[in-house]
Amino acid sequence: xxxxxxxxxxxxxxxxxxxxxxxxxxxxxxxxxxxxxxxxxxxxxxxxxxxxxxxxxxxxxxxxxxxxxxxxxxxxxxxxxxxxxxxxxxxxxxxxxxxxxxxxxxxxxxxxxxxxxxxxxxxxxxxxxxxxxxxxxxxxxxxxxxxxxxxxxxxxxxxxxxxxxxxxxxxxxxxxxxxxxxxxxxxxxxxxxxxxxxxxxxxxxxxxxxxxxxxxxxxxxxxxxxxxxxxxxxxxxxxxxxxxxxxxxxxxxxxxxxxxxxxxxxxxxxxxxxxxxxxxxxxxxxxxxxxxxxxxxxxxxxxxxxxxxxxxxxxxxxxxxxxxxxxxxxxxxxxxxxxxxxxxxxxxxxxxxxxxxxxxxxxxxxxxxxxxxxxxxxxxxxxxxxxxxxxxxxxxxxxxxxxxxxxxxxxxxxxxxxxxxxxxxxxxxxxxxxxxxxxxxxxxxxxxxxxxxxxxxxxxxxxxxxxxxxxxxxxxxxxxxxxxxxxxxxxxxxxxxxxxxxxxxxxxxxxxxxxxxxxxxxxxxxxxxxxxxxxxxxxxxxxxxxxxxxxxxxxxxxxxxxxxxxxxxxxxxxxxxxxxxxxxxxxxxxxxxxxxxxxxxxxxxxxxxxxxxxxxxxxxxxxxxxxxxxxxxxxxx
Amino acid sequence: xxxxxxxxxxxxxxxxxxxxxxxxxxxxxxxxxxxxxxxxxxxxxxxxxxxxxxxxxxxxxxxxxxxxxxx
Lengths: 637, 71
Hints:
The complex is a heterodimer. In chain A, strand 6 (197-198) and strand 7 form a beta hairpin. Chain A has 3 domains: 3-148, Beta-Lactamase (2-Layer Sandwich); 204-359, 2-Layer Sandwich (Alpha-Beta Plaits); 372-536, EAL domain (TIM Barrel). Chain A has 21 helices and 24 strands. In chain A, 52% of the residues lie in helices and 21% in strands. By secondary structure, chain B is mostly helical. Chain B has one domain. Chain B has helices at 9-28, 36-55, 59-64. In chain B, helix 1 runs antiparallel to helix 2. The chains are: A alpha/beta, B mainly alpha. The A-B interface holds A 157-158, 161-162, 164-165, 168, 172, 175-176, 178-179, 182 and B 32-35, 37-39, 41-42, 45, 60-61, 63-66.
C-alpha cells in the first residue's frame, strides 16, 4: 500500500472516530440536559399545584381533589404522608410511583429530584413538600424511549455534513502530508547518495569504499575467503586535464569507469577513490589470483582511449593489497594498497603488490620511531668515536662522533636506519642536539686530560634549516670552554645542495664562530665546484667508496688523487675515510692527504676505550700506531 | 501566474457534479438541511469544487503534487 493511501485511510479513520466520539458525547450531554429540563418542569408543576391551594381549607382534601385534574402522561402525582409514612389515595399511578414513594418514605430529605429505571423504562421525578404540612407531592414522568431517535433527527444532518466535510479535509491533509513526506525522503535519498558517491562517475566515493571493504571483509572472514583490494592511478589524467581541458578529463574518467565495469561485470566493487584514483575490490577465487586480476585490470588501459577526437594511450599504475594477508581492517587494507601504489610509482612499474619491506609507515617502523624518541629523551643512545690519523704528525689528532643505538629488544639498530627515521620524523634536531652536547663535553674532558682532540659531528640536511643552530653551538662551546677550532661540523654535499642559499648563510655563521667545516661524502653528490668554492669550508672528506677500492682500482685511485689535488688547490685539507689497509694508507700519505680514517686506523669505539687507548700511548710511528690500534681492536672484539 | 491544468476530464466532471449538488443543498433548496452552518459549509465546498473544475486545476492537487491530467 502506498504511503498516500495509508495516510488517506488513517486520516479518514481518525475523522470517523472523532465524529463518533463527538456524537456519543453530544448524545450524553443532550440527555443530561433534557433530564434537567424535565425535572425543572416537574418541580414547576408541583409548585403550580401548591399555588392553587387555599390555606384556610383542609389541605389533604384540596390535594386529593386538585391532583386528578392536573394529571396527564407527563405528570403523575403521588400524595405521601411523611408523618404516617404512607401513600395517600388520590394520586395517579405508574410503575414508578410506589417505588419512589418507598424511597422517599425511607429517606428524610423532603425536596429531591432524580431518575430511576425499571426494566427498560426510565422515570424522572421531582418530590416537593407541600408548604406548612407533612405531605409530599412526588411528580414522576416516564421518559420517552424514542429520545435517541429524536436526538438524531435533530443532529443527524449537521453531524453527517460535518463528517463529510471533515473526511474531505482529511483527504486533503493526507495528500499534502504524503507529498511532504515524499519530498523529504527523496531529499534524504539524494543526500545519502551524494554523500556516498562520486557525482561524475556515479561510483562509490572513498567513505563508501571504506564501508563496503569493511563489510566484504567481514563476509570474507566468515567464509574464509580472500579479498584483493586494488588502487588504480590514472597517470594521464593530469595531462589530459591540462592539455585538453577538464571536460576531456571527465570523459576519460567516465570511459575508464565504463571499461572497468565491463571487465569486472558483477564480480567486484568499483569505486572512485578520489582525484585520479579508482579502487577495485574483488573476492579472490582459486582460479583468480592476484596476478590474473592485475592483468585483467591492466588490460583495460591497453586499447586507445578516444576523447574528443584525440586518441590517447592511458597508462595506469596499480597498488594491490590482499586481505587477510596484508591487513585486518579496511583502513589498513586501503593504506597498504596505497603504499603498494606508491612503491609502483616510485619504481616506475605498472603494478606492485604490497610488501612489508617497502613500507615506510609500517607498525614496526612506528614502534621504532616511538622507541627512538624515548631513547633520545632518556639519553639511551651511545656516542662512539672513530679516530682520524693526522698523517703529518703521525698521531690521532681528531675523532668523528658517531651515534649508536642499542635497542633494548632488537639490539643494534644500524645508524642508517634510525637516522633516516629521525630525519623523516623531525627527531633529527633533538638527536643532533644530543650529539653536539655529548661530543663537546667529551672534547672538554679529553682536553682536561691533556689530549687536545678535534671532534667531528655530522649535520643532517634538516639541521641546515635550524636557525638556532649556530647560537646553540656557540653556547655549548662557551659552556665547556672548548675552542671553536676543536669542533668540526661535517655536512654532506647533498645536504648543502638541497638549499644552497640557506646552507651558505648558516655555514657563514658557523665559520664566523671559528668552527671547522667539512664537506662529507665528497664525490658522491652533484655539487657544483663553482658553488663549493664560495663556501667557507676547511676540509673535504673523500667518500669511502673511492678509498676502499683505490688499491685495486686505478680509476678510483685517480679520482682520489684528483680530489686531493683539487682540495689543496682550493686551500682545503683532505680527510680520506674507509682506509682498510696499509697500501691505501701509504698511497694516501704520498698523495698528501692530511687525515686518514678507517678500520685500518681504528673502529668507532666508546669514549672510555678511546681514552684508555690515547692517554697512555703516544703514537711514535705508523707501525707502532698500527700495533697499538690492532691491539685495542682485539681487546674490544 | 498562469494556472496549470492538473485535472482530467473525468475529474472535472465529478467535481462539477459534486459542486452543483452541494451548492443546490447548501444555497438553493434549503429544506433538506435545516442547520444553517452545515448548509453554508456544504455550499462553500460546492463552490470550491465548482471553481476547481472551472479553472481545470485543483490547488490541493498542485500542492500535493498530484496530476490526473497527465497520467
